[in-house]
From TrEMBL, chain A:
PANTHER family: LEUCINE ZIPPER PROTEIN 4, SPORE GERMINATION PROTEIN
GO biological processes: spore germination
Domain of life: Bacteria
Species this chain originates from: Sporosarcina limicola
GO cellular component annotations of the record: membrane
Protein name (database record): Spore germination protein KA
Transmembrane segments: 282-303, 324-343, 415-436, 448-471
Pfam families: GerA
Keywords on record: Membrane, Transmembrane, Transmembrane helix
Family: Belongs to the GerABKA family.
Automatic annotation (TrEMBL), chain B:
Localisation per UniProt entry: Membrane
PANTHER family: SPORE GERMINATION PROTEIN B3 (PTHR35789)
Any one GO CC term of the record: membrane
Keyword terms, alphabetized: Germination, Lipoprotein, Membrane, Palmitate, Signal
InterPro entries: GerAC_N, Spore_GerAC-like, Spore_GerAC-like_C, Spore_GerAC_C_sf
Organism: Sporosarcina limicola
Name by which UniProt lists this protein: Spore germination protein KC
Bilayer topology annotation: Lipid-anchor
Family: Belongs to the GerABKC lipoprotein family.
Annotated Spore germination GerAC-like C-terminal domain residues: 224-385
Gene3D superfamilies, sorted: Nutrient germinant receptor protein C, domain 1, Nutrient germinant receptor protein C, domain 3
Spore germination protein N-terminal domain segment(s): 24-198
Superkingdom of this protein's organism: Bacteria
GO biological process assignments: spore germination
Length: 532, 399
C-alpha cells in the first residue's frame, strides 16, 4: 500500500461504518400480479415523485381489463405515448376482433405486442429493477392487471441541444458537427460516417445511482481484440455511484494516475472518432457528455489536429512542425529566458544582452520571480476568463492586457522582454489541438522555471531528461505512450512529425493493430505484394 | 521500497533549495564590459575597462544625458589583481564574457604580450571571439576613453569598423583573440596586429560633446599593422605594405587599387575577388616559396582618356595592374624580410606542410634563413567588369 492509498484510506474506515442508509433495490424482485400492488410499490419506491406519470385505463370490449401506463414526464415522448399507445389501446381497437380477443385471451401481453402497439421497440419486463431503469430512462411501462409481467415501449425522447459546431476543437476545413449530450445522437453521428457491419457497439450501465449508459465502439477485425477485452475488463471493474462526465471514466480506466500526461484521448468531433476507429482504436461513449474517450491514446495524437488530414500533405506537415515548435516554446519559453539571463548571459549576442539588460534596469525582482509572477498572473487571467459570465469577458481582457502588460512594464515592475516571453509562451500553449495536453504542458512549465532558476540550462536538461524518461515509462492500454518514437517504428513515422500524402499512408499504426494492416490499395501496394 | 521513495522525494525537493541560486547573476547586477585596455606603467599593469550603461543604450527609454559607456581603471602587479581591485570603484561585478575589443598599449606590446594574455586564456568566463588591436602613439586607456558618434558604444564602433575595413579596404587585420593565441603558439609564423590611433586631441574626445557634433573632432582610426616577433612588437608596416601583407596572406576580400593609364591619368579598380596560393618547396636543399595571386577586378572609376571597348586595352590594363600589384607586394616582402626579419607570412608553415622532414632541420635556424628566402611571385590580375557604362562620360561628349 503506497503513501497515497494510506492517506485516502485513513478517513475511509469511518465512512464505511456509516454507510448503509441508501435504499437498495434488490435485483430480482418480481412484479406483483395485482396492478394496484404494482402501482403502490412504484409510487413508494420513487417517493411519489411528481415527474412520474401513472395512468390507469380500461380497455377491452366491456372495458373491464385494467391496464396501467407509467412513464417519466420529460424523458418520454408524449406524442408517441398518445398516438401509439393510448390512442391505439383506447380508441383504435374498439370494436375490432382484437378487442374481443383481449376479453377472452389469457395472454394479453402477447396479443398487445403482436397486434396493437404500433411502436418500434417493445420489451417484456418482469422484475422491478429493470422496470425502474427503463422508466427512468424514458421508456413507457404498460402493466396489465392480473399479470406479473409488463411491457416496455421505447419512447425515449428528451430535450436535446442538437448537433452544434464543436467549440473546443475548431477547424477551418472539415466537418462542423460535434457530439451532444445524448448518447444515441452520438452513436448515430459515428454510424453515419462508418457504414460497416463490423462497427460494433456494446452498451452497459455504469454507476449504481446514475445508471449511466456507457458504450464501447470499435470496428471488429480492425481493433485489436486484446485492447477491446482490456477496455471491457476495465469498464466492468468500475463500481461507483455515479458517472457524470467522461472524465470520471477516464480517471478510472487510465493506466497511470500519477502522471501529468493524459493517457486517454477525448474529443467532441465525430470525424476524429471515426478516424481513430479506423486506426484500430476503441471509442468509449458516455451518455450525458459530448466528450467521447478514445483508447489507446499516444502522445502524438494529442499534437495532431484532424485538419492535418483534410489539408494537403505538405501544408499540414509544415503546420505540424510549427506545432512542435510551439510545444517546445510553451514548455520551455520562460525557463530558457530565466536560465539564459541569470546563468548564461555569455550565450546571448552582445547587442541582445545589452538590450535586455537595459530593460531589466530598475526591475526590482530577480528574473525567476518576475517569470513566476507573470506566469501566475496569466494563469489567473486565463482561469478567470473561463469561469466568469461571458458578458464580463471584454472587461477582463481590457484589465488583463492593460494592467498586466502595459502598466506593469511602465511602472518598472516587470521588464518588457518578460512580457513578450510570457505572452509568446501563452500563445504557443494554444497550438495544441487538445485542451488536456495544453493544460499538461502549462503545468510542467512551472517546475521547469524552478529548475532553470536553480541550475540554469543544466537544470532544464535534467528536467527534460526526467520528462522523457517518464514519458517512455508510460503505457496506454498496453501500448507504449511514446510510440512510434520510442520504440522507434520506421513505418509509422509517415504520420508523426510529417504527414505523408494520403496514398503513402499505407498501413495502420503497428503497435495498436495486429492484423488488417493495409489501409490503401493502389499501384504501390500491388507492386509491394508482387514483391517488386 | 517506501523509504527509498521518501528519500528520493526529499532529495528532489531539497537539492534545488540548498543549492540556492548559487552561481546566479541577474542582468541588472552585472556591469557588462565591452572593451578592455591593458597598459604597462612601470612594473605594473594598468587595466582599463569600458562598461556599458544599459539604460543609456536602450532603444526605448529616453536618454538621461549620461554617457553610454563608463570607464574604470586600476593598477596591479598582475591582471587579475588589477581587475579584482577594480571592484572598489565599480558599482557592480564586472562581467567579461561580452568583450568586443581588447586594446594593448604600445609600451606593453613592445615589452611582450604573452604573459599578459595568460589570465584571459585561463578564465572560463570569456568568449574568445573579440578582436585585439594595438594602440598606436597613445595608451590603451586613452583609446578607450574616446566617445564615438553614430555607434553609441565605442567598443562596437571599433569592432565593426575593423571588420568592415578589412572587408572593403584590406590594409587592416582583424585578429580574433583565439587566432592571436594560435599565432603566438605557432613556430612557423609570427603574428601581426592592427593598430588603432586617436586622430585629434584625445582630451577633447572623452566628453559626450564629441558625439554631438556633425564633424566631430576626435576619431579612432585603424592605421598600420604592428609586426610582432614572437610576443614582442618590433615595428609597423605602412598602409601599402599592410595591403601587400594581406595579399600574401590571402585576406583581401575587396579593396581599391589605383593604376596609371597608358596615356596619363589614372584608373581606379575595385578588387572583387582575390585568391592567393602559397606553396613551399625544397629546391636543391634550399627552401623556396611560390606565391600565386589571382585577382579579379572591375573598373570603378576612370579619370583618363582610354577606350575600354577594345580587348587590347583591357589586356594592357591587366598587365599594368599586375605589375603595380607585384610592386606593392615586393615592397612589403622586402620590408619584412630585410627590415624586420620576421616571418609573419607563414612561409615556415608552408615549408612544414610541403616537406616536414626538411622543416625539422630548418626550424631552429629559420630566423636566419627567412631574410634570404627566395620568394617567387606570380601575379595575375584580370579585369572582369567595367561597371554600368563602357566608356566614361567626358569621352562621349567630345565626339
Amino acid at each position: 500500500m503506497n503513501f497515497f492509498e494510506k492517506w485516502v484510506s485513513k478517513s475511509f474506515k469511518e465512512s464505511f461504518e456509516r454507510d448503509s442508509e441508501q435504499q437498495q433495490i434488490e435485483p430480482e424482485i418480481p412484479l406483483h400480479t395485482s396492478l394496484q400492488d404494482n402501482i403502490r410499490d412504484i409510487k413508494k419506491t420513487l417517493g411519489n415523485s411528481t415527474d412520474i406519470v401513472i395512468r390507469e385505463v380500461r380497455i377491452g370490449k366491456s372495458g373491464d381489463q385494467l391496464i396501467g401506463i407509467v412513464y417519466t414526464d420529460g424523458l418520454a415522448d408524449k406524442s408517441a405515448i398518445t398516438d401509439f399507445i393510448m390512442e391505439t389501446l383506447m380508441l383504435n381497437i374498439k370494436g375490432t376482433r382484437l378487442d374481443k380477443k383481449i376479453q377472452s385471451s389469457t395472454n394479453i401481453l402477447q396479443l398487445l405486442k403482436d397486434y396493437a402497439l404500433t411502436i418500434g421497440d417493445i420489451k417484456d419486463v418482469s422484475d422491478f429493477k429493470t422496470l425502474y431503469n427503463s422508466v427512468l430512462s424514458g421508456e413507457t411501462l404498460i402493466l396489465i392487471d392480473g399479470h406479473a409481467e409488463g411491457l416496455l415501449a421505447s419512447t425515449r425522447s428528451w430535450q436535446d441541444r442538437g448537433v452544434t459546431e464543436p467549440s473546443a476543437e475548431s477547424v477551418v476545413r472539415g466537418p462542423r458537427e460535434s457530439f451532444s449530450e445524448t448518447m444515441r445522437t452520438n452513436t448515430s453521428l459515428i454510424r453515419r460516417k462508418i457504414k460497416d457491419p463490423n462497427l460494433w457497439l456494446e452498451t452497459r450501465q455504469i454507476g449504481r445511482v446514475t445508471q449511466t449508459d456507457v458504450a464501447i465502439m470499435f470496428i471488429k477485425g480492425i481493433a485489436s481484440d486484446k485492447i477491446v477485452d482490456e477496455v471491457r475488463a476495465r469498464l466492468d471493474r468500475i463500481d461507483i455511484d455515479g458517472i457524470l462526465e467522461s472524465g470520471y471514466i477516464e480517471e478510472l480506466i487510465q493506466d497511470d494516475t500519477f502522471t501529468p500526461f493524459p493517457t486517454v484521448f477525448n474529443t467532441e468531433r465525430p470525424d476524429v472518432v471515426a478516424a481513430e476507429l479506423l486506426e484500430g482504436k476503441v471509442a468509449i461513449l458516455i451518455d450525458g457528455t459530448p466528450f467521447v474517450l478514445v483508447v489507446p491514446a499516444l502522445l502524438i495524437s494529442f499534437i495532431h489536429s484532424p485538419e492535418d488530414y483534410y489539408q494537403r500533405a505538405d501544408i499540414s506537415s509544415l503546420v505540424r512542425i510549427l506545432r512542435y515548435i510551439g510545444a517546445f516554446i510553451s514548455l520551455l519559453g520562460p525557463s530558457l529566458y530565466v536560465a539564459l539571463t541569470t546563468f548564461h548571459p555569455q550565450m546571448l549576442p552582445t547587442a541582445m544582452l545589452i538590450s535586455i539588460a537595459s530593460q531589466r534596469e530598475g526591475v526590482p525582482f530577480p528574473a525567476f520571480l518576475e517569470a513566476m509572477l507573470m506566469e501566475l498572473a496569466f494563469e489567473i487571467l486565463r482561469e478567470a476568463g473561463l469561469r466568469m459570465p461571458r458578458t464580463i469577458g471584454t472587461a477582463l481582457s481590457v484589465v488583463g492586457t492593460l494592467v498586466i502588460g502595459q502598466a506593469a512594464v511602465e511602472a518598472g515592475l516587470v521588464s518588457a522582454v518578460m512580457v513578450i516571453v510570457v505572452s509568446l509562451t501563452a500563445i504557443s500553449g494554444f497550438v495544441f489541438p487538445s485542451y488536456s495536453m495544453s493544460s499538461t504542458i502549462r503545468m510542467l512549465r512551472f517546475p521547469m522555471i524552478g529548475l532553470a532558476a536553480t541550475f540554469g540550462l543544466f537544470g532544464i536538461i535534467v528536467g527534460l531528461i526526467a520528462l522523457i524518461l517518464h514519458l517512455c515509462s508510460l503505457r496506454t492500454f498496453g501500448v507504449p505512450y511514446m510510440s512510434p518514437f520510442a520504440p522507434l517504428i520506421l513505418t509509422d513515422q509517415k504520420d508523426t512529425i510529417l504527414r505523408f500524402p494520403r496514398w503513402a499512408l499505407l498501413s495502420r499504426p503497428r503497435l495498436i493493430n495486429e492484423k488488417n494492416m493495409i489501409r490503401v490499395e493502389n499501384e504501390l501496394t500491388q507492386k509491394l505484394k508482387r514483391g517488386e | 521500497m517506501r523509504r527509498v521513495m521518501v528519500i528520493s522525494c526529499l532529495f528532489i525537493v531539497i537539492v534545488p533549495l540548498i543549492s540556492g541560486c548559487w552561481s546566479k547573476r541577474e542582468l541588472n547586477e552585472l556591469a557588462i564590459v565591452v572593451a578592455i585596455g591593458i597598459d604597462k606603467v612601470g612594473e605594473e599593469y594598468e587595466v582599463t575597462v569600458q562598461v556599458v550603461d544599459p539604460s543609456e543604450v536602450s532603444a526605448s527609454k529616453s536618454s538621461g544625458g549620461r554617457t553610454p559607456v563608463v570607464m574604470y581603471h586600476a593598477k596591479g602587479e598582475s591582471m587579475f589583481e588589477a581587475i579584482r581591485k577594480m571592484t572598489t570603484v565599480t558599482p557592480r561585478k564586472l562581467y567579461f564574457a561580452h568583450i568586443r575589443m581588447m586594446i594593448l598599449g604600445e609600451e606593453l606590446a613592445v615589452q611582450g604580450i604573452g604573459q599578459t594574455l595568460d589570465f584571459f586564456t585561463r578564465d572560463q568566463e570569456l568568449r574568445a571571439d573579440f578582436y585585439v588591436a594595438v594602440a598606436d602613439q597613445s595608451s590603451a586607456k586613452e583609446v578607450l576613453s574616446i566617445l564615438t558618434p553614430l555607434e553609441k558604444i565605442p567598443a562596437n564602433k571599433m569592432f565593426n569598423s575593423l571588420k568592415s575595413s578589412s572587408e572593403f579596404w584590406a590594409p587592416t587585420v582583424p585578429t580574433r583573440f583565439d587566432e592571436l593565441l594560435k599565432d603566438l603558439e605557432s613556430k612557423g609564423r609570427n603574428t601581426v596586429l592592427t593598430t588603432i590611433r586617436i586622430e585629434g586631441d584625445p582630451k577633447q574626445g572623452t566628453g559626450k560633446e564629441n558625439a554631438e557634433k556633425i564633424n566631430n573632432s576626435v576619431h579612432l582610426r585603424y592605421s598600420d599593422i604592428a609586426v610582432f616577433k614572437n610576443e614582442k612588437m618590433v615595428g609597423l608596416l605602412n598602409e601599402e605594405e599592410s595591403k601587400g601583407y594581406n595579399y600574401i596572406r590571402n585576406k583581401v576580400k575587396s579593396t581599391a587599387g589605383i593604376i596609371a593609364c597608358p596615356k596619363g591619368g589614372i584608373i581606379t579598380t575595385e578588387v572583387k575577388d582575390s585568391k592567393t596560393k602559397v606553396k613551399g618547396k625544397m629546391a636543391k636543399g634550399k627552401p623556396r616559396i611560390d606565391v600565386t595571386i589571382r585577382s579579379d577586378t572591375s573598373i570603378a572609376e576612370v579619370d583618363c582618356d582610354i577606350n575600354l571597348q577594345k580587348t587590347e586595352t583591357i589586356a594592357e590594363l591587366d598587365k599594368i595592374a599586375s605589375e603595380k600589384l607585384k610592386g606593392i607586394i615586393e615592397k612589403s616582402l622586402d620590408t619584412i624580410q630585410h627590415k624586420y626579419k620576421v616571418d609573419i607570412f607563414g612561409f615556415g608553415e608552408a615549408i612544414h606542410r610541403a616537406d616536414p622532414k626538411a622543416w625539422y632541420k630548418l626550424e631552429k635556424e629559420w630566423e636566419e634563413i627567412f631574410p634570404e628566402l627566395e620568394v617567387k611571385l606570380k601575379v595575375d590580375v584580370k579585369t572582369k567588369g567595367l561597371g554600368t557604362v563602357m566608356n566614361s562620360l567626358p569621352k562621349k561628349q567630345k565626339e
